[in-house]
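STRUCTURE:
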């Protein structure tokens, strides 16, 4: 997977779009949280390719993978 950073605002936002493979893009947003930490918001746009990816998307595999990755990142 390869991507191009389309916007990078220090301490606020990083956005990307894919350059190879399945069409996808997204952004990660960072905001100060009330408890002194940081609130992180992830937005992803993903277009599955082919039968296997479409079936996986319908069954929720992509969402579960992203959720698991985010939980590991938080730890």
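SEQUENCE:
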């Amino acid at each position: 997977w390869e991507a191009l950073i389309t916007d990078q605002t220090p301490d606020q936002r990083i956005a990307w779009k894919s350059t190879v493979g399945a069409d996808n893009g997204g952004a990660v947003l960072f905001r100060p949280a009330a408890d002194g930490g940081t609130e992180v918001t992830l937005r992803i746009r993903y277009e599955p390719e082919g039968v296997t990816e479409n079936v996986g998307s319908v069954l929720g595999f992509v969402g579960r993978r992203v959720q698991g990755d985010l939980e590991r990142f938080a730890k």
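REMARK: Helices lie at 50-58, 61-74.
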